[in-house]
Write a structure and sequence with these properties.
It contains three helices and 29 strands. By secondary structure, the chain is mainly beta. The chain starts with a helix and ends with a strand.
Length: 551
């Protein structure tokens, strides 16, 4: 009996030991799972980052564009690589082009004692056909290829970043849309319009502050990149003693001679927002200062040309102003919008239009060229600034909630002073392929009105930089203008998907109209011979498919 009792007690002890061991292996009870919660403070798409009071929205877009007579999304002959393509020959021009662009965006916001703290950044990638694709293949590891320099590859290909800013207590700092901009014409057109100077596509680095006064009235002030570092407005000052005005091989580019960057451009704007839309007035101050004089003025040592010993023109500054408005639910039609804007600038073309640089368009033996710069100077002269103005309008109508049509139109004018025309058309030491009426080392001074104290008379039959061999009766006048008009229709079978087509006409006007020039055999594939300046125009079309996910 005793042994039975011992056996039972031993068995019970063993079972208790096993149970204790198993209990020791059980996991500790997990904390409750904290699921992602919707954040309703800032609109659709935001959610709380777990464990914080910060809200985040992740967006993305992907779009593919196909263009006819369009360099990527820019009409042929309207600057950049498209200018050379404006020769309209079989090897320099791609009549059918494409662009694929995508990006992801991150919008992060937190409420603070001073209002909303916001940071926003996007990261994207772009692939476009070159202006003369497929005749400009890139050879890895080299700077040239069998068909020409790598620079012929489409500009902007690769990774890009158009926004990266912080907003807090009225301040905006980083890569943003310029405070000078009013209307964004890109919302109404697929093409890279050459009318307004809106920085929405690429952004600009700056720092600004906006003060709200109630009633929808606000005052904004900022300092912004006025150069090329971050897709800014650009500085376009040309030394005619050192570089040609335009190019000797027709639309080959623009050479500039600017001083170093010393400050960001000051920008100011006043705006009113109401139920009917908004209206604004903006202004900007721009640095046009040039580099050193090129030729021997203070020394006969030619090795010291374009150095500090030669001196330089006085610092020069330009300015620009803009006024515009946008009406919502236009004429009582829900969703319809109508807007217009006008810009004017002196020595600040980049605030008036995005079409800076050199244009060129050809049809048969008729050609039109355009070069836009903020200012020009030569050895011993000051910097003479260019005047520019532009007007543009846009309208969009919703036929149904999924079908809409937009129309855009505008005009840009570039006007050079008589002083500038005398410098450009008379030539300067080392300038262009034409002749120089002065001795090679004589500073070019003096204009028609003798404002510089020299005696060079005004001339109208001298060569201009981007061409050579003008006929004796030709008239040199660098003034130019262009206009664009187009319509875009888009259909959205789903709110996130757009499919559309746009037709656009670009007209380029030249004040050299009627003049003839003997073009050398260095201008792409077009044959040498006599060509006549005449107004030119280009029809272009764009087809786009776009998916936008919580933009």
């Amino acid at each position: 009996m005793k042994s039975v009792r011992c056996l039972l007690m031993g068995s019970a002890a063993g079972l208790m030991a096993v149970s204790a061991a198993q209990a020791a292996d059980l996991p500790v009870k997990a904390a409750p799972v904290e699921y992602v919660k919707v954040c309703n403070l800032y609109g659709a798409g935001f959610w709380y980052v777990p464990g914080t009071d910060t809200c985040m929205k992740i967006g993305a877009f992907l779009r593919t564009s196909y263009g006819v007579n369009a360099n990527g999304t820019t009409p042929i002959g309207s600057g950049g690589g498209g200018a050379a393509a404006g020769r309209f020959d079989r090897t320099d021009t791609t009549f059918f082009a494409f662009q694929v662009r995508s990006a992801a965006s991150f919008d992060v916001r937190t409420q603070t004692d001073y209002g909303t703290l916001r940071s926003y950044v996007n990261i994207g990638y772009q692939q476009s056909s070159a202006a003369n694709w497929p005749n400009a293949p890139v050879v890895p590891g080299s700077t040239t290829n069998a068909e020409g320099p790598i620079s012929q590859e489409a500009a902007g290909n690769g990774a890009y970043n158009s926004r990266a800013f912080i907003q807090f207590a009225g301040f905006t700092v980083g890569r943003m849309r310029s405070f000078f901009d009013i209307n964004a014409m890109g919302a109404y057109t697929y093409g890279g319009n050459r009318l307004t100077a809106d920085t929405a596509p690429g952004g600009v680095v700056g720092m600004g502050y906006t003060a709200q006064f109630g009633g929808g009235i606000s005052l904004s002030a900022s300092i912004e990149d006025g150069g090329f570092v971050t897709g800014g407005r650009g500085r376009f000052t040309t030394d005619l003693s050192q570089y040609a005005f335009g190019s000797g091989n027709l639309s080959g580019g623009q050479n500039l001679d600017n001083s170093g960057h010393v400050f960001f451009d000051p920008v100011v704007g006043v705006r009113i927002d109401q139920n009917w839309g908004y209206a604004a007035i903006t202004g900007a101050f721009h640095n046009d200062s040039g580099g050193y004089y090129n030729n021997a003025i203070n020394t006969t040592n030619g090795l010291l040309a374009n150095t500090i010993v030669q001196g330089h023109p006085a610092d020069t500054y330009g300015w620009a102003a803009g006024v515009g408005f946008l009406l919502t639910d236009f004429l009582g039609l829900e969703g319809d919008t109508f807007g217009a804007q006008a810009n004017y600038g002196v020595g600040a073309n980049g605030y008036v239009t995005r079409a800076t640089g050199t244009w060129f368009t050809r049809s048969g033996n008729n050609i039109a060229g355009s070069t836009t710069v903020d200012g020009v100077f030569a050895d011993g002269t000051k910097i003479f600034e260019t005047k520019a103005w532009a007007v543009g309008a846009e309208y969009e109508h919703f036929w149904t909630p999924r079908l809409r049509t937009a129309a855009v139109a505008g005009f840009v004018s570039i006007n050079y002073s008589q002083d500038q025309k005398d410098l450009i058309c008379a030539g300067a030491p080392g300038y262009s392929l034409g002749f120089n009426p002065l001795a090679p080392n004589t500073p070019l001074i003096g204009t028609k009105n003798n404002s510089l104290g020299g005696g060079l008379p005004s001339k109208t039959n001298m060569p201009v930089g981007f061409v050579n061999g003008w006929s004796p009766n030709s008239v040199c006048n660098p003034d130019t203008s262009w206009w664009q008009a187009g319509t875009r229709t888009a259909y959205s079978p789903h709110p996130d998907l757009d499919m559309g087509v746009e037709v656009l006409y670009t007209g380029l006007n030249t004040a050299n109209r009627g003049a003839t020039v003997n073009v050398a055999g260095t201008s792409g594939a077009i044959p040498p011979g006599l060509y006549t300046f005449a107004n030119q125009g280009v029809w272009s079309a764009l087809f786009r498919f776009s998916r936008n996910f919580i933009p």
